[in-house]
Every structure is written in C-alpha cells, then in structure tokens.
Amino acid sequence: MKLLANETIEAPSALSAHGAGQQPCEQQGSVEERRADVGNAIVPDNIIAKGQVVEAHTDFLEYQDDPEVDGHANSGFLVVHKGEFVHALHVGSAETDDADWIYGEVVSDAEVKRTGWLPTKIVK
Q1: Terminal C-alpha separation, the chain
Q2: What total of structural domains would you count in the chain?
C-alpha cells in the first residue's frame, strides 16, 4: 500500500507512553537468518503478532525529518523503506489506544538500532 501525497497518518495517542519505555529486545542469529524466518512468521489473515518479523511493503518516511524527542529519533516514529524487515516489539490494540500501530525495530546488523512506531498498513 502506498501513501498518497495528501494522506496523513494519525499517531497513536499512547505514543509517548509506549515509546519512551520500550527497549529493543535481544535478537538471535544473523540478519540473513532473521530475514529467512519471515516466511515462517506469517500469521493468517494479515494479523501481526508480537515477536513477528514483517516486511515493509512501502516506504514510511513521513517523520524522517523530525527531531529526536526523549532519545527517540524521528519523534519516536520508525522510518522504514520498502523491503526492510521490522521485528514487532509491541502490537497496538483498541485496549491500549494504539490500534493499527506497532512499535518495532528494523532488523539489521547496525550497531545503533532503529526503533519506533509504525502504522500496520505499511507492513500488511
């Protein structure tokens, strides 16, 4: 799914509550091994599960120029490019007031991990 030029994405109201306290989880194996697991991690009906690794099907660059806030790059949003893989650390829901959003970490061997909020429609 591609975002239209005039389309905006509403951030979850729980952004600051979840983003500030999230810590990247320990990842096992190389990037290639984790990417290979993507095919095995698909959940039926396009439902994303915590711990799942999902692929971005479109760029999410809306916040790429936003400043760092409370130690989180891009105001706490995860900037991703099509084809990157994201490890879902938290999956939003109506109960936590962040439905249609995930808090994730880009799967890479980079020393500095990229984490933040991402709309689920980017990876579904």
Answers
A1: 8
A2: 1
| Structural tokens at position 63 | 């916040």
Are 75 and 66 spatial neighbours (Cβ–Cβ below 8 Å)? yes
pTM to 2 decimals?
Answer: 0.64
Give the SS3 label for residue 113. Answer: coil
Residue 38 lies in domain: 15-122
Phi, psi dihedral angles at 17 (to 5 degrees):
-70, -40
Which stretch of DSSP H or E encloses residue 115? strand 115-119
pLDDT per residue of the chain (124 residues) written in tens, 0 to 9: 444 444 555 555 545 444 444 444 445 556 556 555 544 444 445 688 899 999 999 999 999 999 888 888 899 999 999 999 999 999 999 999 999 999 999 998 888 789 999 999 999 7
Q: Is residue 69 part of a domain?
A: yes
Mapping DSSP to helix (H, G, I), strand (E, B) and coil, where does residue 99 land?
A: coil
Q: Which residues contact 53 (CB under 8 A, 6 or more apart)?
A: 34, 35, 37, 38, 41, 85, 86, 87, 88, 107
